[in-house]
Amino acid sequence: MRNRIPVYDIQNFSAYKNDGILVSRFGFYAKQHQHLHSAHRHSFYHFVFFTQGTGKQQIDFRTFDVKPNLIYFMVPGQVHSWDFQSEPDGYLINFSATYFSSLLLKQDYLDKFSFFSGKPEEQVLVLDRDACKKLISIFEEMLGEGSTDKPINDDLVRVQLLRLLIEVARVSSSSNMQDNNPYNHTILRNFQQLVEQNYTNFRLPKQYAALLYITPNHLNALCNDFLGVSAGKLIRDRVILEAKRLLINLDLRVAEIAEKLNFEDQSYFVKFFKKYEGVTPDKFRKHYITTPYGTE
Asked: Which CATH architecture is the domain 182-290 placed in?
């Protein structure tokens, strides 16, 4: 039975010559870190490109197939697990949230990539043959840089990593680093960041619209046009996600979770959760701990 979900920091893993990044062949990594196959969280950015293997993986309670030519991305704080049916291999990169701070003046640069949005449906991509060849070449260059006896050139590795991310963004139909209307794109990004920072306190679109100096109708229109959901649903989904993350920690009572999420009382939290998930918090918790993947 899972008592709590572990959180791993970049320092928990062998460094790639220097702190802040780990580049590895995935087959070796998966064998060395069997504990990571169970549900866990990272405090760093993480992505894997599979060249072989089959099975399932779960990102924030959404289940995806594992297969060759698939790449997935994760941001700090997300819940993740693997369940392989055949031996996997490929490439893995972990890097800290501050890894690019000495190179990029624009600290929110990574936010431009849709696969770092924190939304599982945007984080799992299947690449075509040409894109796979390009990525394998870059991964091998990075591994080669790490294995040489010469001192590692940190900025060269950072540039290689940025090149890899840009190549994925180019070939991904869901990745678009430049919107036709930069103003709307900026408002939407700012809204998503505000939700991440304030979802326990602000539950109404009009509260966020006021912070953004726009009308609630404008905010809803942007969310519907670009994300296909209302602003209210985006806020609720973030609250529900955090509730799920807390519920799989069996050390917390439902009443404590309700308090952490700033609900008036346990009863209101239970009604809220059941309304949007179709089950009570207790039933969700029991289902998760008695099945390999809990919920999809």
From this structure: Orthogonal Bundle (1.10)
